[in-house]
Design brief:
Blueprint: H1 46-71
Length: 74
């Protein structure tokens, strides 16, 4: 992406220019940047989505189980 004000070329999708601070307007049709989406759901590949869902469920269950162990020791 090239800044229209200072001409700085950036290879990342910034919302402002890192040099001059000029704000880039996002097009309404432009999808959200990949860093805003959850890992595993970026490419919309079914096996990655299934694996990511499984990992998120396991993490959630581990957090719930650890909270019960902390509240009720022994």
């Amino acid at each position: 992406m090239k800044c229209p004000v200072c001409g700085t070329v950036s290879y990342f999708e910034f919302s402002v220019c890192p040099c001059c601070g000029h704000s880039f307007a996002l097009d309404p049709e432009q999808p959200l940047p990949n860093w805003r989406k959850l890992p595993g759901f970026r490419t919309q590949t079914p096996w990655k989505m299934l694996l990511a869902s499984f990992v998120y469920i396991i993490l959630l269950l581990a957090i719930i189980a650890s909270s019960f162990l902390i509240l009720n020791p022994g």
